[in-house]
Amino acid sequence: MGSRVSEYEKAISSIVERKYEDKRVFSVQWHITDHCNLACKHCYSSNNSIRDLPLNVLKAIFDKYLKAILKWGVEGYLSLTGGEAILRSDFFELLDFIHARWEEHPVFVVSLMSNGTLIDEERVSHLKEYLPMLSHVQISLDGVNEETHDFLRGEGSFSRSKKGFSLLREGGFTTALHYVVHKGNYRDAFNILELGDELKVIRVTLSRLVPEGGGKTLEMLAPSELRDLWDYLGSRCLDYYPKGVFLARGRCDLWHLPDIASALYSLKLNSQGNAFPALYRVGQRCPVGLNGLAVDTDGTVYPCRRLPISVGNIVQDTFFKIWYSSRLLWKFRHKEEYMKGKCRDCPFLTDTQLRTLCAGGSPCISYGNCGDCFEPDPQCWFDPYSEEQREEVEKWRKRILE
Ligand code: SF4
Ligand code: SF4
Question: How does the average pLDDT of the chain come out, rounded?
Fold first, then answer.
């Protein structure tokens, strides 16, 4: 671990310091249609019903979002998705509406989350009209080759998604790659950075499979498999940053556990106001209840799309009301009081600094696994009762944070 720290220090010292603007954001992942051209085995929308709302209702929902971010004085990150969002016949009318609002209030950016298979020249040229409001397009892949990917997403989808990446890139868009890892595509996940490099994406995000919806048909990784993957990718990501491929480690995925020293180092630099480590940060706690919500196709609001527990419906409610009246969101903001089992005795929950890295792991995975978001993450391999592991954390904590 010592050499990892020095590699990490070296990489950071080569980066030009930019002052970190402490931006507060409110993000919404918005599912605007249930229609999809694929039928992926692991899709979280496991039923076939179509619950699309009419365009005038979508416009009213967007205005509620804009009103909320203006009132709170925060920046908006809106991710449009589905189903396959561009399958809505009025998709571009909705974008026209959002864009007109953006011209008046440029306080938000929009991204598109897509399977990439329907991206063609005509759509790319239409999407370009929304630059720079449309900040990037994220495409999901489930393997680094046809065999693994098409097994889940259907024949021919791998090559069509790859074509989508290149058309978008040629059209001037930045692209990001999202990959959900499980037993069936575990081996491929070790080569995901090479694929990101080939596709020239700016970000590779790995998520763990959530055993919900279609995800229940696939097998989750054992904690030790996950640790090996995170450890390997953590050691490689420094090589890929100079090539422009950023491995999104700053998310809710136990990234910090195999690499505690780097996690604490990035935590320290982040708190000192450096822009780069904020992006480079090795793991963060699940942010549900802290900076965003997900809106499903029928307006149902979830803490996160991977955590399907309704906290309201945005057709009837406002973001303000849902945000402040949901007991569940309130409990997520106080996980130190509500987590159960081994997390209660874990420094990643009890210590106020370390809590920003974990605080119980991923509630979506606990919920999918046992129906209780406040049970410890079943893929966490940290043992708070092990003297050796606690000492390791304490050693780095003293060296780096104090
Ligand atoms: S025991 Fe709980 S708080 Fe500790 S690292 Fe694991 S999931 Fe996080
Ligand atoms: S519920 Fe939390 S851990 Fe799970 S995907 Fe959402 S933000 Fe991440």
Answer: 90
Mutate to test the pocket of ligand 2, among 304, 309, 311 (most ligand atoms within 8 A of CB): 304
- The predicted-structure confidence for 280-331, as pLDDT tens digits, reads as follows 678 889 999 999 999 999 999 999 999 999 999 999 999 999 999 999 999 9
Taken as a whole, the chain contains a residue count of: 402
Which band of pLDDT confidence, cut at 50, 70 and 90, is reported for residue 44? Answer: low
DSSP string covering 241-274, please? Answer: GGGT-EE--SSSS-TTTT-HHHHHHHHHHHHTTB
Strands (E), 25-173: 25-31, 75-81, 108-114, 134-140
Q: Supply the pLDDT for residue 262.
A: 84
161: Cα separation from own chain's centroid: 20
Give the model's pLDDT for residue 239: 84
Whether the CB-CB separation of 183 and 221 falls below 8 Å is answered with yes
Q: Is the pLDDT of residue 249 over 70?
A: yes
b/e map 124-161, b = 16+ CB within 10 Å:
beebeebeebbbbbbbbbbbbeeebbbebbbeebbebb
CA angle 154, 197, 116 (to 5 degrees): 30
Tell me the C-alpha distance between 163 and 189, whole Å: 20
340: three-class secondary structure by DSSP: coil
Q: Is 361 in the pocket of ligand 1 (CB under 6 A)?
A: yes
Q: For residue 317, give the DSSP letter.
A: S
Does the C-beta of 347 come closer than 6 Å to ligand 1? Answer: no
Distance from Cα 362 to the centre of ligand 2, integer Å: 5
Q: Is residue 274 over pLDDT 70? A: no
Please state whether the peptide bond connecting residue 292 to the residue before it is cis, i.e. omega within 30 degrees of 0. Answer: no
